[in-house]
Amino acid sequence: MPTLPSLGLRSRRNGRGTRSAPRTPAPLSAYVVDCAIYVDGHRLEGEWNHDDAIEEVRRRGSGFVWIGLHEPDEEQINGIAETFGLHELAVEDAVHAHQRPKLERYDDTLFMVLKTVRYVENETLTATSEIVETGELMVFVGRDFVITVRHGKHAGLAEVRTQLEADPEQLALGPSAVLHGIADHVVDTYLEVTEAIQDDIDEIEAEVFEPRTKIDAEQIYLMKREAMELRRAVLPLTKPLQRLSEGYLPMVADEVRSYFRNVEDHLAKVSEQVNSFDELLTTLVDATLAKITLQQNTDMRKISAWVAIISTPTMIAGIYGMNFKVMPELDLKFGYPMTLLVMLISCIVLFKIFRRNKWL
């Protein structure tokens, strides 16, 4: 198996051809969130690095290592990749992220990618608002190790580790039990996010169909965009979970497969809800556009009515402004007030007509 370049210091030349100071990479410990050994479901005391941990497990002939990493670079993950025999393609995916949810097998190692999501509350929505924040979580599962690599600030696994350590019987099932715990945790967050988005959509729906309310169509388009972001995280995970629950992968303990079926059922529920979001938001967009069109028609009727009212005195004033000698009422003492009165009465009559017909 090809190995990654060895970890070391690299000097670079600047634009003038002189050698710049060597770049010192951050120590591996800066990326390691936790490294622990589990034997019979219980965590061994002490602090371990990845070399000593796997050596201890293989010396005992039982247990496994669980290493958690947060956004490591290629140089920093190199030592772990060599120690555990991780495939270079999987390591590259884990470092650079931006992957779709998937499950791949490299010899005796499983590599799984999951999308993590978090609901972001916004007091006011704008075109740049983000409702669903996504991250990525990669999991390497071997016979005696689990390595998690996460990208994003919201995808912490401390809660999962604590829950599993509180259940030694489950943790004793091995690395696949950890994979199940992670997948179950991720899908549970999907459920929480979909419920929050459902509440937002319900509020928008009530506002759209409430009489005499103005709704901005951009808010619905924003919700539709975020729902699509959630859909891209949820739907591709269906096939990986099916493979984990159907028994084609020897790295997954038989006792754990039924748990994956439960996670698959939860994911199916989320998928149905996410698909319903798209249909509902499309309906709300159509309703909003129809409401906007109706409002525009109402506004145009009001404008037309006021134009008709204003045009009447304008027309009379225009006729009397042509300065002909023979004009009605020019020689009368009260001709000017009578003309103004005719203008006022005409405007009042037109106003009442338009008001009765609900144009005003």
Condensed summary:
Keywords: Cell membrane, Ion transport, Magnesium, Membrane, Transmembrane, Transmembrane helix, Transport. InterPro entries: CorA_cytoplasmic_dom, CorA_TM1_TM2, Mg/Co-transport_prot_CorA, MgTranspt_CorA/ZnTranspt_ZntB. With 360 residues, the protein is α+β, with helices and mostly antiparallel strands.
Helix percent band: 40-55%
Instruction: Tell me the strand order in the biggest sheet.
Output: 2-1-3-7-6-5-4
The end-to-end distance, rounded to whole angstroms, is 80 Å
Count of discrete structural domains: 2
Q: What share of the residues does DSSP label as strand, in percent?
A: 5-15%
The profile of the biggest β sheet is: 7 strands, mixed
* Shape type: rod-shaped
| Helix count, DSSP H or I runs of 4 or more residues | 10
Order of secondary-structure elements: EEHEHHEEEEHHHHHHH
Mean pLDDT: 80
Parts with pLDDT < 50 across at least 5 consecutive residues: 1-28
The CATH C-level name of the largest domain is Alpha Beta
Q: In CATH terms, what is the fold-level topology of the largest domain?
A: Beta Polymerase, domain 2
Rg calc: 35 Å
Find the CATH superfamily of the largest domain: CorA soluble domain-like
- Structural class comes to alpha+beta
Q: How many beta-strand segments?
A: 7
The second-level CATH architecture of the largest domain is: 2-Layer Sandwich
